[in-house]
Amino acid sequence: MRKKPSGRALARGTLALSLAISAALASGGFATAAAMRPSDGSAAQADLVGSGVQLAKAPREHQLFPRDPATNNAVVTIAGSVVQAGATSMRLDIARDGQALSSSSVPVQGAGSGFTFAPRIQAGLNSYSFRLYSVSGSSATLQGTWSDIVAGDVFIVSGQSNAAARQHFPSNPGNPSDTSNSSGADRSPWVRTFGSSTADPTTAGQDDTWQVADGDSYQVSGAVGQYALRLGRQEVNTYGIPVALLQGGHEGRPVTFFQRNDASPADPGTNYGRLLGRAQRAGVQGQVRGIFWYQGESDNNDVASQTSGFASLLDDWRTDYPGVEHVYAHQIRNGCLDAAGAPQNSYEEREAQRRYASLPGVTVLSTTGIDGQGPDNCHYYYAGGYRDLADRDFLSMARDYYGGSAAASTAPDPQRAWFSKADHTEITIALRTAGDALVAGCGPVSDFVVNGSPVSVASMSVRPGFIHLRLTGPATGATGVGYVGHDGAGPWITNSNGIGLLAFYNLPLSADQAGTFPTPLANCPPPAPAPVMARTVGGDFNGDGKQDIAGIDANSNMKLYTGDGAGTVSGGSDMLGSTGLWRGFKAITAGDFNGDGKQDIAGIDANDNLKLYTGDGAGHLGGGSNMLGSTGLWKNFKAITAADFNGDGKQDIAGIDAGSNMKLYTGDGSGAVGGGSDMLGSTGLWRGFKAITSGDFNGDGKSDIAGIDANDNLKLYTGDGAGTVGGGSDMLGSTGLWKGFRSLLAADFNGDGKRDIAGIDANNNMKLYTGDGAGRVGGGSDMVGGGRGVWGGF
Questions:
Q1: CB under 8 Å, gap of 24 or more: what pairs does 662-667 form?
Q2: Dihedral of the CA atoms 622, 624, 625, 626 (nearest 10)?
């Protein structure tokens, strides 16, 4: 076990330095323009106040010297030669926290004589200063001064945007007391950095300043990111050891971007080279103790590139940073947009990252269990996000470097899985950390998948070292089991320290092993019922050239509200009698399905069949024929919408199926549909979407799909005119504005030639958001009722 710093180091010097600390933080750090200087001997020479010596080696202002963990101290070398005759000795005075500590001298014999001082300073919350004198007889002449020197540890943080971890959002609505989303309160004069993480080679090479680390900024002098800042602050607070953090992150880049130029490792034209150059100029290259790595979102599930790239980096780090004892690699999580702009899951890539734990010296860090993911489902707030992630990662850091507890310091990680019931309706998963207790809230069963089988997980139970799953039926054809997690906040499966279960995918199922299913998690309230989605559609049902709204009311009758072409509707007449015929219909959509030029309505009935009710162009409907047999194929479809998605001039139907995939059923122009192809892969991307609608929202002549996602944002997936969609851009910001909306319908309600979106909000009012023809909407006016909630029964 490594030597744990004395608790006395936590207090020494704190009061003496309080004023200096406050001044440094208030000014944004230590660095000044005068500190921007070359990294050769002239760097040391710049701190001289006299002209009697030439320095070869000396500290910089505010420098952190890497400590020797065995002795808890560091050597500060001041060396050079005398350039003026007359000096008989050189004297070095050292002060700690402003109090004289020691004075030592070395003899010299006039001009050309060399001298070296190599005092040791102890690592702790203490600031050292040095004053160098040339002595001639009884006269001493000040030649150089260096202040605020400390000893501590050095770590690197690098990767993509979640490693750079800038302040991504202005505030955290989930934490009303936090109006800034800033990490500023965790800044400390004992958490430092060197130079700048800028991508500009010239600027990066010229910045040789030591500074107080800043968490909120990005790629400027002193920036380390919110995550790294908190990690360093935890070391300072817990063990009283100053820390230097070198940030090498760059947003939105694949692993290839971070590779070394093997012909010139410190090449300033590369990200790797700029970071290595900073470590060299800071004098810490050989004493970096660990590397924290968070990268992979931009590899877009390219497992081969991710794994080979990480392996190359690991080899290069071990060569160029020989003091590194541990590498900590984060496993990415759901949410960040892929190269096409669609949210990505990267199940296979995350499984590959989980296996990095088998590499010597590598610890895989979990990103599940963190609730503070922001509205973009990619980056994090500070409170609940980067701060909490750093706090949990610090448990591994404390264990590996400072003698911290090993209990529950590692992410729960599956070792193997098997069927524990002969009929293959139960699965047991054994974890590598058998002794750690698990905590599982109500609900995470939906985060599991049974690979190769259509069954899902019905219930679960946990006990130390094991997870037990009860399935909805026999897992015929199953090849493995996976835990894929989810976007946003919990529920999660964690250890007792809140570290989340690592995601895994297609973990093989070994030979059956009989077992008893423990009591399922108790005291879980039944899930809250999903909000009843209103069944409303838009279209010109009465043939006057203006867009109307039709919907199923509380009495299960189809009502027509005619539009005035200026954004409001009125009326409420019956479209097919008042017999309650529409009772049990789960979803409806509108279009000219039979090619007669009149608007029809299609819907999934109580028997899970798709029915067609043809319009007469005067506001009435009739019929009720099957559009794709009567086999109940549409069971568990969550939403449907109609448009000409494949560009053949006929109305098609798209819908979110039970697997949360968007399926396309192409129309024949005579009232029937067929097919069932995927419109955007089969990854379950549409899980959590509450409503969808369709139309040409961006004015390119092709039909798109818009929908309210799990985070209550309106997303646009643009069509290619050939039956597929892509993208996933926000149509009205990412503020969760659409929370509580129970319907979504699209048409040109205000007659400006652009597709608008209307919907019933949480107050049961029909709101109109007008389109700009470029994929965005704005507004939010009432379409009928003046805000009186008249759509409450729909």
A1: 662/686, 662/705, 662/725, 664/723, 664/724, 665/628, 666/723, 667/591, 667/593
A2: 150
CATH topology of domain 7-149: Immunoglobulin-like (2.60.40)
CATH number of the 152-401 domain:
3.40.50.1110
HEC per residue, 725-763: EEEEEECCCCCCCCCCCCCCEEECCCCCCCCEEEEECCC
Strands 139-159 and 288-294: parallel
CB-CB contact of 326 with 372 (8 Å): no
> What is the DSSP code string of 234-294?
HHHHHH---EEEEE---TT--GGGG---TT-TT-TTSHHHHHHHHHHHHT-GGGEEEEEEE
Tokens describing residue 77: 């070398």
Q: Is the pLDDT of residue 366 over 50?
A: yes
The closest of 561, 565, 542 to 552, measured between CA atoms, is 561
Whole-angstrom CA distances from 498 to 367, 410, 415 are 11, 10, 20
Q: C-alpha angle with apex 125: 120 to 130, nearest 5 degrees?
A: 45
Contacts for 589-592: CB closer than 8 Å, 24+ residues apart:
589/537, 589/640, 589/641, 589/642, 589/653, 590/537, 590/538, 590/539, 590/541, 590/550, 590/642, 591/539, 591/642, 591/643, 591/651, 591/667, 592/651
User: Quick check: 65 and 59 in contact, CB under 8 A?
Assistant: yes
Tokens found for residue 30: 């230590």
Range from 44-58, 139-153, 224-238 carrying the lowest mean pLDDT = 44-58
DSSP 8-state code for residue 556: S
Segment 618-674, tens digit of pLDDT: 999 999 999 998 888 898 898 999 999 999 999 999 999 888 899 999 999 999 999
Structure tokens at 113: 């004589």
**β-sheet bridge partners, residue 532:** none
Q: Which residues pair with 288 in a beta bridge?
A: 154
Beta-sheet strand order (sheet of 569-574): 536-539, 548-552, 558-563, 569-574
pLDDT digit string (tens) for 547-590? 998 998 888 899 998 999 998 888 889 988 888 888 889 899 99
Which residue type is seen at 560? L
- The answer to whether residues 229 and 183 touch, using CB atoms and an 8 Å cutoff, is yes
Distance CA 188, CA 123 (A): 16
Rg (CA), the chain: 33
Q: Could you tell me if 135 and 45 are in contact, meaning their C-beta atoms sit under 8 angstroms apart? A: no
- What pLDDT is recorded for position 40? 37
Q: Could you give the count of Cα atoms lying within 13 Å of 496 in the half-sphere of its Cβ?
A: 11
Residue 572 to residues 553, 557, 693, Cα–Cα distance (Å) = 10, 10, 22
Instruction: Quote the CATH superfamily of domain 536-787.
Output: Glycosyl hydrolase domain; family 43 (2.115.10.20)
pLDDT at 87 over 80: yes
Q: Which amino acid is at 308?
A: S
Q: Model-level pTM greater than 0.90?
A: no
